[in-house]
Amino acid sequence: MMFLNIGFGNVVSADHVIAIVEPDSAPIKRLVEKARDDNKLIDATYGRSTRAVIITDSDHVLLSAVQPKTAANRMEKV
Fold this sequence. Notes:
Number of helices: 2
Largest sheet: 4 strands, mixed
Order of helices and strands: EEEHEEEH
Strand order of the largest sheet: 3-5-6-4
Low-confidence stretches: none
Distance between the termini: 10 Å
Structural class: alpha+beta
């Protein structure tokens, strides 16, 4: 099993990642709010600003403080 480092020592299974997106658009903001309401939101930012939203195949949404490009580059190495 391969893991993707999403910052601050947090990892997610790379096999379950569907998308890594920026948090700025309205549809992504709605997705994050729905995940929060459904208790499927995982905040891995440690109080920093959210720079990437990671969507998994289990409908969990992860917030990360690393740039989406950085996370995507790390995903390619896995």
